[in-house]
Write a structure and sequence with these properties.
elongated
Length: 476
């Protein structure tokens, strides 16, 4: 038996002379072509209900996506020593026999995504795939992963297991010393325990976004010293322990957006000196501890938008110096002297934009960049409660006085109109026009006796009094 197997392997070794056999041995429902990296077999959307009986021995890639495959039996693909990539996405697979992938000893990439009826995998399913580097189990509705399932894959670099039904980080990940990327987003994971990620010393990217994570234990990522990208956004985190991110000295991106955090603690980012992108948006953050960002001098962007912040202290950044962009929109900012440093920073650079003021009332609706701050005689900042009410007219204006006089004259005209005939109105107007510029009492004259005379005289007296008061204000 061993002699026959060795003979089959020798016959199937790729060579230049075997180029034509890729086309000759192509399954009837498939198309085959020679590419730079070997023979490619495409059987996607072919309506297949079972795996073809034979494939070209030189096959380097087989695509069986979007068919009706339900079961993979033992040695489902025969012996294909040149096969590096196998894709079975979007089928109806419900059971994979242990040993189904025997004979594919050089397989490096296996894609089983979107087989919603799979739900369960035997612990020995991948036993023959010692060289597998990329495994895709996304959207298979898996409730769990057997502890030993991935132990047979020492070369595994990337695991895609998002859109599944895990309630915890699969224990099968522990000890995968070469794993660099783990995609576990859009599931039902509720916590990241201190033992969940043990032994993942080469892990560079971990995606846990859009789960139901309520708790991250202290030192949960302690073994992940190579981690560069950690996504925990869109979960249910309300609190974090001080040592939640201890040991992540190489972390470059941390996304905590879309949670329920009420504040930002100084201890969280103590070890994150290499952090470049920090997302804290879409939380309920109302306060930031002093020094919270003091070690993050290399940040390219800090997202604090969509929170409940009314004030942000410069002490949150000291003694470091924030060099990147700061996103602060959709917060109820209280634009008093506590934000003067931020207004000055906005003026000196373009790194901060859109800081709309919600209070005090004198600046509500303005952007912080438009708020006026002044200094008192002893050099202290003066809150803009009064300043911004007159910010549009810093000097004394005579406009309101003139407006008052004109309104008073208009009122007198309306009072006089119903009681004075046209001729009397002309005479009265002439009398007013010749009034003395020294604001002495004008001569109104008596044009007729009785009630009209008294009314006209009183009106002239009031108008003269108003002009005298106006002139006095202008002299002051």
């Amino acid at each position: 038996m061993l002699v026959l197997l060795l003979h089959a392997v020798v016959l199937c070794l790729p060579s230049i002379r075997a180029t034509g056999s890729c086309l000759r041995a192509c399954p009837a429902a498939c198309s085959c072509s020679n590419a730079e990296h070997g023979c490619w077999v495409r059987c996607d959307r072919a309506g297949l209900q079972r795996v073809p009986a034979e494939f070209p021995c030189e096959a380097a890639s087989i695509d069986l996506d979007r068919n009706g495959l339900r079961i993979l039996g033992e040695r489902a693909f025969g012996t294909l020593p040149s096969l590096h990539r196998l894709s079975l996405r979007h089928n109806n697979l419900s059971f994979i026999t242990p040993g189904a992938f025997k004979g594919l000893s050089w397989l490096a990439e296996l894609r089983l995504a979107h087989n919603g009826d799979l739900r369960y995998l035997h612990a020995r399913t991948f036993a023959a795939l010692g060289r597998l580097r990329h495994l895709d189990l996304a959207a298979c509705r898996l409730f769990s992963v057997p502890e030993r399932l991935l132990a047979e894959l020492p070369a595994l670099l990337e695991l895609a297991a998002f859109d599944n039904l895990f309630r915890r980080v699969p224990g099968a990940l522990r000890g995968l010393a070469n794993l660099t990327h783990a995609h576990l987003e859009r599931g039902r994971i509720e916590a990241v325990a201190s033992s969940s990620l043990q032994g993942l010393r080469r892990l560079r990217s971990l995606n846990l976004q859009a789960n139901r994570v309520r708790a991250v234990h202290a030192w949960a990522f302690g073994d992940c010293g190579s981690l560069e990208y950690l996504l925990l956004n869109d979960n249910l985190l309300a609190v974090l322990p001080p040592d939640a991110f201890r040991g992540l000295h190489r972390l470059r991106t941390l996304n905590l957006g879309g949670n329920a955090l009420g504040g930002v603690a100084r201890a969280w980012f103590a070890d994150l000196a290499e952090l470049e992108l920090l997302y804290l948006d879409r939380n309920s953050i109302a306060f930031v501890e002093e020094g919270a960002f003091q070690n993050l001098s290399g940040l390219l962007a800090l997202h604090l938008n969509g929170n409940r912040l009314t004030v942000l202290s410069w002490a949150a950044f000291q003694p470091g110096f924030f060099l990147g962009r700061l996103f602060l929109f959709r917060n109820p900012w209280h634009c008093d002297c506590h934000l003067e440093w931020l207004r000055d920073w906005i003026e000196g650079s373009s790194r901060v934009t859109d800081v709309p003021c919600a209070s005090p009332g004198s600046v509500a609706g303005l952007d912080l960049s438009q708020v006026a701050f002044e200094r008192s005689s002893n050099g202290l900042c003066v809150d803009p409660v009064e300043l911004n009410l007159t910010a549009s007219s810093p000097g004394m204006s005579l406009g309101p006085v003139a407006t008052t006089a004109s309104r008073f004259s208009s009122l007198l005209s309306k009072l006089l109109a119903p009681r004075v005939n046209v001729e009397e109105a002309i005479n009265a107007t002439a009398g007013l026009a010749n009034a003395s510029l020294s604001y002495t009492l004008p001569s109104c004259g008596v044009v007729d006796s009785g009630h009209k005379d008294k009314f006209l005289f009183a009106s002239c007296l009031l108008l003269s009094l108003a002009r005298h008061m106006t002139f006095g204000r202008q002299l002051d």
